[in-house]
């Protein structure tokens, strides 16, 4: 019996340095993700009064819209993080506002390609399909050591010659690396 206790104690002693990593992985998978706002955003273009930064300012009644009117295909919003983040979730408020009475005043993205760039340059691509409705839409979005996220419009709802694509808010959640 004493030999078993000694072997168990030695095993625990050698395993201690590795246990903290195991607990960290468990926390990331089961813990609540935190908000990880970007430090800078830019876009393919911006209509007067609707800059790229309006899509990440924490208010869903201001919005980014590109300078050009039309279907919005190819327009993009790109955000940088000051330090790498482990992304787990994305929330998007499409349209001009989360309020139903304002939501339909401009075009809204229907399909978006998300391109995540990791610190080492590795790229991860995900296509997201948005519903044509006011309010938040939540997506699982996994990216390790992410330093940049780019959203490119593939298709849209409610387009027209005098209408622009509008994104009221984009929120990132995960953990800082």
Describe the fold and architecture.
With 177 residues, this protein is of the alpha+beta class. The protein folds into two domains: 1-31; 35-176, Jelly Rolls (Sandwich), CATH 2.60.120. It is built from two helices and seven strands. The protein has helices at residues 2-30, 100-103, and strands spanning 34-35, 40-43, 76-94, 108-118, 123-129, 136-157, 167-176. Strands 1, 2, 3, 4, 5, 6 and 7 form a seven-stranded antiparallel sheet that branches. A hairpin with a 4-residue loop joins strand 4 (108-118) and strand 5. The longest helix has 29 residues, at 2-30. It is elongated and about 80 Å long. Mean pLDDT is 88; it is low at 22-28.
Query: Helix/strand/pairing class, anyone?
Result: alpha+beta
| Distance linking N and C termini | 44 Å
Note poorly predicted spans: 22-28
Query: What is the total tally of β strands?
Result: 7
This entry's quaternary arrangement is single chain
CATH class membership of the largest domain: Mainly Beta
Topology as a string of helices (H) and strands (E) = HEEEHEEEE
Q: Which value, in Å, is the CA radius of gyration?
A: 21 Å
CATH superfamily of the largest domain: Galactose-binding domain-like
Total number of domains:
2
Calculate the mean pLDDT score and round it: 88
Organism: Streptomyces niveus
Pfam families: NADase_transloc (PF25302)
Domain NAD glycohydrolase translocation F5/8 type C: 52-172
Region (Disordered): 30-49
């Amino acid at each position: 019996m004493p030999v078993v206790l000694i072997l168990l104690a030695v095993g625990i002693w050698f395993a201690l340095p590795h246990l903290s990593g195991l607990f960290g992985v468990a926390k990331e998978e089961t813990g609540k993700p935190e908000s990880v706002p970007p430090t800078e955003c830019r876009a393919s273009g911006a209509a007067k009064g609707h800059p790229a930064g309006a899509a990440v300012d924490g208010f869903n009644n201001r919005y980014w819209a590109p300078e050009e009117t039309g279907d919005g295909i190819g327009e993009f919003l790109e955000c940088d993080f000051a330090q790498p983040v482990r992304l787990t979730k994305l929330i998007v408020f499409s349209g001009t506002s989360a309020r139903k009475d304002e939501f339909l005043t401009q075009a809204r993205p229907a399909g978006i390609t998300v391109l995540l760039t990791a610190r080492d340059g590795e790229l991860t691509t995900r296509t997201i399909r948005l519903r044509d409705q006011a309010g938040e839409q939540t997506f699982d979005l996994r990216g390790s050591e992410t330093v940049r996220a780019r959203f490119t419009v593939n298709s849209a709802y409610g387009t027209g010659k005098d209408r622009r694509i509008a994104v009221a808010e984009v929120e990132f959640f995960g953990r800082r690396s």
